[in-house]
Design a protein that fits this description.
about 350 residues, alpha+beta, eight-stranded mixed β-sheet, five-stranded mixed β-sheet, 8 helices, 15 strands, disordered N terminus, binds 2,5-anhydro-1,6-di-O-phosphono-D-glucitol, binds manganese (II) ion, FBPase_N, Fructose-1,6-bisphosphatase class 1, carbohydrate metabolism, FBPase_C_dom, FBPtase
Length: about 350
């Protein structure tokens, strides 16, 4: 969330920050919902940390709608996100990577004006090797409040998001949030159970010398991406005249967090493995929330051919090409897509 610059200070709790931002505003409900999502993330953080001790690592044997084998913790995190947010009266329906269909709030609870979209556990292939994972969320407003929520109500371009964020379950658990007034990062104080503002006003440096891409897909990349990565790898004697560094955690949350802290560019581009597949990552609950955060931090996010936040979704689980991070590098990649189609 984003208090006006100067108002928020290090050490403020997420609860206080949220209350301050939304006091007496018609968006009070949004602050309440963000508080509940934050609580859900604390509970998921605890469940993830206990994984090796509680027989919750490993696979369930079921596939999700993307054809990925679901891990036990994918489903546990999905349940926890629902359970800790559905009762509060702020949400009308939810959509998640791990649910083929939308989840309408049971009638015993008040229906709210928001739609909650989430990736309950991002980077779950890293669980069994104890590498950082996260949760990603996006909040949309329900377009109309009559009748039942339908899939179509969710199909809003990313520019319509009213809030987005992620929790990173790393050496420390962190919550990074935007409501469209900048990006703020909070660190979970395990002793008090509060998220504390430690990273107010996060910004992404416009230039970088670090990229992130799964290079095992190189043989399938399109020409503009091959050109860009070749130039990065060419080092000081190449066209960039600089040596680039590379990172690939295989947890999008961890990659985006690194980019918010020290800059960088992240790519999961379209490749030619399957002409019907525009990329790997999912538009609604991975690309859109991360693009909102990155743009709010002064970075850029593109498919290579159009801004991610302007893509009109056609389906809940649709995939999209993702190029985001330091804005001058993203601009260069967009230029290469124009020059080398
Ligand atoms: P999820 O675990 O939610 O399915 O997401 C995994 C995503 C993302 O976190 C990461 O950037 C990417 O998949 C890693 O893909 P590769 O395994 O192809 O490297
Ligand atoms: Mn998955
Ligand atoms: Mn994910
Ligand atoms: Mn996931």
């Amino acid at each position: 969330t984003g208090n006006p610059p100067g108002k928020a200070h290090m050490g403020t709790s997420f609860s206080e920050f949220n209350t301050g931002e939304f006091a007496d505003s018609p968006q009070t409900d949004l602050g309440v919902l963000l508080g509940q999502v934050a609580t859900a993330c604390k509970v998921i953080s605890a469940a993830v940390a206990r994984g090796p001790l509680s027989d919750t690592l490993g696979y369930t044997g079921t596939d999700n709608i993307q054809g990925e084998n679901q891990q036990k913790l994918d489903l546990i995190a999905n349940e926890l996100m629902i359970r800790w947010t559905e009762w509060g009266g702020q949400v009308a329906a939810m959509a998640s990577e791990e649910m083929a269909d939308i989840y309408r709030i049971p009638t015993q609870y008040r229906q709210g004006r928001y739609l909650l979209v989430f990736d309950p556990l991002d980077g779950s292939s890293n669980l069994d090797v104890n590498v950082s994972v996260g949760s990603i969320f996006s909040i949309l407003e329900r377009p109309q409040t009559e009748g039942e929520v339908e899939d179509a109500d969710f199909l809003q371009p990313g520019v319509m998001q009213v809030a987005a964020g992620y929790a990173l379950y790393g050496p420390a658990t962190m919550l990074v949030v935007t409501t469209g007034h900048g990006v703020n990062g909070f660190t979970l104080d395990e002793e008090t159970g509060e998220f504390i503002l430690t990273h107010p006003g996060l910004t992404i440096s416009p230039d970088t010398r670090e990229f992130a891409i799964n290079a095992s897909n190189a043989r399938m990349w399109e020409a503009p991406v091959i050109r860009y990565i070749d130039e990065c790898l060419a080092g000081v004697t190449g066209p960039r005249g600089e040596a680039f560094n590379m990172r690939w955690v295989a947890s999008m949350v961890a990659e985006i967090h690194r980019i918010l802290i020290r800059g960088g560019v992240f790519l999961y581009p379209k490749d030619n493995r399957d002409p019907t597949r525009p990329g790997k990552l999912r538009l609604m609950y991975e690309a859109n929330p991360m693009s909102f955060i990155v743009e709010q931090a002064g970075g850029a996010a593109s498919t290579g051919r159009e801004p991610i936040l302007q893509v009109q979704p056609q389906a809940l689980h649709q995939r999209v090409a993702v190029i985001l991070g330091s804005r001058n590098e993203v601009a260069r990649l967009v230029q290469y897509h124009l020059e080398t189609p």
